[in-house]
Amino acid sequence: MNTPTETNNQTISARREFFKKIIFYTSAGVVVQALARSVTWAAEELGLIDMTKAKRKDAANEESVKIAAGIGYVSNLDAALKAKKATKADKPGAAGKVWKAGEQTCDNCALFNMTKATPVKATCALLPKVLVDAKGSCNSWAPKA
Ligand code: SF4
Question: Does this model's pTM top 0.85?
Answer without folding.
Answer: no
